[in-house]
Predict the structure.
Amino acid sequence: MSSTGKSYAFIFPGQASQYVGMGRALYEAFESVRELFQRSDELANRKLSRLCFEGPMEELTSTINAQPCIYMVSYSIFMLLSERGLHPDYVAGHSLGEWTAGAAAGFYDFETGLQLVLKRAELMNDAPVGAMAAIIGCSEREVLELCKRAGEKGIIVTANFNSPKQIVLSGERPAIEEAVRLAREFGAQRAVMLRVSGAFHSPLMKPVQVQLAQMLMNVQFHNARIPLVANVTARPVQDGSTMKDLMVKQLTAPVRWVESIRWLWAHGVRTFVEIGPRKILSQLVRQTIPEACAIQVDTPDGLEAVTATLMP
């Protein structure tokens, strides 16, 4: 809780938030960030820090690189805020971001989380080919009707409920392309194919889910210090074994982001601090709850602004 007495949450972005240059200003400004990045490079056995700073964008965007790079940058910001005595009432993360949130909550330490994210990224990079698309301007009911129609071409499901007017679909490419083609008939303002290699959060990820479950069998998840509002349930979790199960289920289940943000608001959260590159989640928060305070931090100036907001 902030010094103003109001609750706040840290929210962590997922894949697609990456950009070339992310983390550089923090790396140059803080010794603790330099140490964290160097440790990450050693654990990954490759220069994640150089990819963040120099790209190229095509290489940084690859699932196998984007996921650990975003995790590393986001956690470094969380670490800096923690050093300043800022401790959120809740955390949440969007898809990959849930793994960063898990480390922030205390289910596992940074190093364990990075190793898991590296393996998850590898598994997802090798996942069966599929496609995803964002449908903008449709209600949930309209999107479900669209899926029913496009489903004549193959598997298609709702993957991310990002905001009241933005829902992401996932599945086999012919069905996703058909949904994009038909979207305006169902009330969409826009339909956009996403630049991803797989059909994340869909039944096509089942082989990856099985492998992830096997990988996590010997990994201990501790009970968390901070409640994490989970993608799968849109409810807070602190029990380690429950969170481990939800991390596995997340691969084939939709991200219930709208419901998660509404739950946090209903339980007193008034400020949402996006911990990581770009402002994607901040925008989704404002689209869901216009009166919410949503701020983002991934630079030293942003760090000062967040500190001033939460500790005036």
